[in-house]
């Protein structure tokens, strides 16, 4: 009598369940790593955006404040017209015509207003125009002494859809080369 052995190849139900359990643990670990990496990337992007906002705002203010007092003919009275903790107005005779005009960026005001860094050209005149430069500003401080102005700017950005908040604060000192001591 010849009996043929019934060789069946494949997995038993127990082997299949063990393999699926191991695979689910591996997938959970990969998913957890992906979520963690995504959150870290989002935090880094938000941090970079906050720092860039602060740097751009400081750079723009510094350029205008450096020109304060520029008066080549000595007749315009260019200076730092307003110097308060949260507001500064600078004047400069940029077109060298001897007067502060309502054009040519000769009267510029920076201030914190409703969480925004505002730049106002020709404040107090018929030509006044205001624009928001940076949003989410939480602090803006000017300290004027002699021929230098120290500017401190703080920006707060929220990560993603309402997670944690990133706050970045930078300070710079601007020397007004055109102001007499």
What order do the helices and strands come in, and which of them pair?
Elements lengths: L12 H54 L13 E5 L2 E5 L15 E7 L2 E6 L7 E6 L2 E9 L2 E11 L6 E11 L6
Q: Could you walk me through the main structural features you see in this protein, from its secondary elements to its overall organization?
A:
The chain is an alpha+beta fold. It has one domain. 30% of the residues lie in helices and 33% in strands. It has a 5-stranded antiparallel sheet, covered by helices on one side. A hairpin with a 2-residue loop joins strand 3 and strand 4 (116-121). It is rod-shaped, with a radius of gyration of 31 Å. The N and C termini lie far apart (119 Å).
Main sheet specs: 5 strands, antiparallel
Which class best fits the helix and strand makeup? alpha+beta
Please tell me how large the radius of gyration is.
31 Å
**Average residue pLDDT:** 90
Count helical runs.
1
Q: DSSP strand (E) fraction?
A: 25-35%
Q: Could you give the order of the helices and strands?
A: HEEEEEEEE
Number of domains: 1
- Give the % helix: 25-40%
- Assembly state here? single chain
Described by the principal axes of the CA atoms, the overall outline is: rod-shaped
In whole angstroms, the N-to-C terminal distance is 119 Å
Low-confidence stretches: none
The count of DSSP E runs of length 2 or more, i.e. the number of strands, is 8
Strand line-up across the major sheet:
1-2-3-4-5
Protein name: Type IV pili assembly protein PilW
Subcellular location: Cell inner membrane
Keywords: Cell inner membrane, Cell membrane, Membrane, Methylation, Transmembrane, Transmembrane helix
InterPro entries: EF_Hand_1_Ca_BS (IPR018247), N_methyl_site (IPR012902), Pilin-like (IPR045584), T2SS_protein_J (IPR051621)
């Amino acid at each position: 009598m010849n009996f043929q052995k019934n060789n069946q190849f494949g997995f038993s139900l127990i082997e299949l369940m063990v393999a699926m359990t191991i695979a689910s643990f591996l997938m959970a670990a990969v998913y957890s790593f992906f979520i963690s990496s995504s959150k870290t990337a989002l935090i880094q992007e938000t941090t970079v955006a906050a720092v860039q906002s602060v740097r751009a705002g400081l750079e723009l203010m510094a350029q205008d404040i450096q020109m304060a007092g520029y008066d080549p003919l000595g007749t315009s009275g260019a200076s730092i017209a307003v110097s308060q903790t949260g507001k500064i107005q600078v004047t400069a005779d940029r077109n060298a015509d001897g007067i502060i005009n309502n054009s040519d960026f000769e009267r510029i005001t920076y201030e914190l207003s409703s969480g925004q860094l505002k730049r106002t050209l020709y404040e107090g005149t018929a030509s006044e125009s205001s624009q928001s430069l940076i949003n989410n500003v939480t602090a803006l401080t000017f300290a004027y002494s002699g021929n230098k102005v120290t500017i401190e700017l703080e920006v707060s950005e929220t990560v993603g859809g309402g997670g944690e908040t990133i706050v970045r604060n930078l300070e710079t000192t601007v020397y007004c080369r055109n102001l007499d001591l």
